[in-house]
Amino acid sequence: MIDPSLIESLKSLVEPGKVLTDASSLEAYGKDWTKQFPPAPSAIVFPKTIEEVQAIVRWANAHQVALVPSGGRTGLSAAAVAANGEVVVSFDYMNRILDFNEFDRTVLCQAGVVTEQLQNFAEEKGLYYPVDFASAGSSQIGGNIGTNAGGIKVIRYGMTRNWVAGLKVVTGAGEILELNKDLVKNATGYDLRQLFIGAEGTLGFVVEASMRLERTPKNLTAMVLGTPDLEAIMPVLHAFQGRIDLTAFEFFSDKALAKVLARGDVPPAFETDCPYYALLEFEASSEAVTEAALELFEYCMEQGWVLDGVMSQSEQQLQNLWKLREYISETISHWTPYKNDISVTIAKVPAFLKEIDAIVGEQYPDFEIVWFGHIGDGNLHLNILKPDAMPKEEFFAKCATVNKWVFETVQKYNGSISAEHGVGMTKRDYLGYSRSAEEIAVMKAIKAVFDPKGIMNPGKIFA
């Protein structure tokens, strides 16, 4: 913990009441959705302007105080956890949409703008912000940028990175940089904007972002298809992609579905029990597209790749089908899951998934394993559920012992140990499975340039 006199000097940098040190605030703002590391911040500070953020960073440099950024705190890698007496910088009060350019289709946002807030603003303008995920109602744009958030529409629209037109950042040295200035074409050397996207606040803080928008998709339609095994899912994807532009292609296991259906507030898609399910979405912009989807469904049934299926016929049914997938994370959170967020190229998914499934099945015979993910872009979520009677510490320790085998398999397939959740503290010690020693050395050198005193979210990504 830092000296109380420093807390008093911090209070002079922001409005009255915008530095909190009470126990409940420290607990709430010192953590994210991970539960492996107990929060232990010294204080929470709430800047309202870029100048205040800059003053906080300069104060931290002067007193060698570590800072941790805090957005919606929906992360799953402990990148926003303050576990070692850091000062948490919350962007809750920097939450305004500042400008809209209808010709360039860009929106200027402060870092604390909630993802759903941007989505709703785009809808009011007759446009669309396509980066979407279950935590859209609480995650913030600054956090999305810091983790290069992906979600359910990546197969069509890509990651957050694809939608950032420009950034304004405060570096770890307290300098303000304006990066790219919304240009579509800008061939003037290094694109520093891209360095800050996915950097988890280790180089500096995003304070403003100009986000691109897209046309609104027409008549979105979803299908849920039950498959006999994992191997069948990829030929289904290949068949549909050959004729239809998909906006999403997700998968989940029967165990994931059972957890969601047990809630009692979501109807099943159909009665047939299947080991695995694929959820795909597309724009039914014409009768011809709908007919093609039905023909593809029949073809997949004939090939034995699909056992049963349903296509949404209304907006309500579309939402209900999506709930089968989107409610999984929230539902299984009751069991304090140990999560692995891994990826490989799409062609390698079936063999990779089969190999990983065999490892966890052998090593965790008494644990319940739940699979789901964005299989259309090669991203798989492995969730190991904690038995109710087992202490959290014992459970996480048991899970960690198998990481070596899981990540060695990821490395064998040239995959990533973190597809979209970032590295933070949970994957920090395993970074070498996805990045070479030379790459890590270059990354550390880059951090030293932007954050020479090492105050920006230390201990995240690498030690």
Task: Kindly state the percentage of residues in helix.
Answer: 25-40%
Number of strands: 18
Please state the second-level CATH architecture of the largest domain: 2-Layer Sandwich
Q: N- to C-terminal separation?
A: 20 Å
Largest sheet: 7 strands, antiparallel
Would you give an account of this structure?
This protein has a seven-stranded antiparallel sheet with strand order 15-12-14-13-17-18-16, with helices on both faces. The longest helix is centred in the C-terminal third of the chain and has 21 residues, at 392-412. It is an alpha+beta fold and 463 residues long. The radius of gyration is 23 Å and the shape is globular. A hairpin with a 4-residue loop joins strand 8 and strand 9. The chain has four domains: 4-93, Uridine Diphospho-n-acetylenolpyruvylglucosamine Reductase, domain 2 (2-Layer Sandwich); 97-215, Uridine Diphospho-n-acetylenolpyruvylglucosamine Reductase, domain 3 (2-Layer Sandwich); 220-329, Alpha-Beta Plaits (2-Layer Sandwich), CATH 3.30.70.2190; 336-421 and 430-439, Alpha-Beta Plaits, CATH 3.30.70.2740. 46% of the residues are buried. The mean pLDDT is 96. It has helices at residues 4-11, 23-29, 50-63, 115-124, 141-147, 154-157, 192-196, 233-241, 254-261, 287-302, 315-326, 328-332, 349-363, 392-412, 437-450; strands at residues 19-20, 43-45, 67-70, 87-90, 97-101, 106-110, 127-128, 164-171, 176-179, 204-212, 214-215, 220-227, 246-253, 276-283, 308-311, 338-343, 368-374, 379-385.
